[in-house]
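Hi R.,

As promised on Friday, here is the backbone we talked about, encoded as structure tokens. Could you run it through your design pipeline when you get a chance and send me back a sequence?
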């Protein structure tokens, strides 16, 4: 019998023990950092959600649109731009969704992350049935504060009638996405 076989306790390797402690410490630090970032993003998002209802945006005719007018009803906010192909592709779907669900209380608002002239020119050729306001480039920051961490377009935020976020989506909405939203108010 060898000396190692006769010992019931395995031999301890000090280098391996240190490495295990180091890996554990790095993992714990990463978890704490990730948790802290998630908490910060949650707090920023909830502040942005409450401040959102105080905002006003310019309509294409120069008048003001008050976000508070959407409170108390389910609302779909869509951040888009004329230079964004997926945004342009989803606008007819959003327009149809609005037409089919406005009688159920749904509100849809397009927040154009763009300038007035290109938006006006685009909508004169491809009109939508829902209101569109000008968020400009500050709309990217607003979308980030509402949970769009990458600042991508299109970005959609759906609010319940209580004013709370019920869904966020980066990328194009689909027919199935919109059908699921429509069922929210019919259930």
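Update: got your reply. Pasting your designed sequence below so it's all in one thread:
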């Amino acid at each position: 019998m060898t000396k190692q076989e006769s010992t019931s306790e395995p031999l301890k390797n000090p280098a391996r023990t240190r490495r295990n402690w180091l890996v554990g410490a790095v993992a714990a630090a990463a978890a704490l950092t990730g948790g802290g970032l998630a908490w910060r993003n949650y707090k920023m998002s909830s502040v942005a959600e409450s401040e959102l209802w105080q905002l006003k945006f310019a309509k294409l005719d120069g008048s003001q649109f008050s976000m508070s007018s959407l409170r108390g009803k389910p609302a779909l906010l869509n951040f888009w731009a004329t230079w964004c192909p997926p945004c342009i592709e989803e606008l007819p779907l959003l327009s149809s969704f609005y037409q089919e669900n406005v009688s159920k209380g749904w509100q849809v608002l397009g927040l154009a992350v763009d300038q007035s002239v290109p938006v006006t020119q685009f909508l004169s050729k491809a009109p939508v049935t829902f209101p569109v306001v000008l968020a400009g480039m500050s709309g990217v920051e607003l979308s980030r504060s509402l949970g769009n961490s990458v600042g991508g377009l299109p970005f959609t935020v759906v609010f319940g009638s209580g004013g709370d976020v019920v869904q966020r989506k980066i990328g194009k909405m689909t027919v199935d996405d919109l059908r699921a939203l429509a069922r929210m108010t019919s259930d």
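One thing I noticed while checking it: The two ends are 74 Å apart (CA to CA).

Thanks again,
M.
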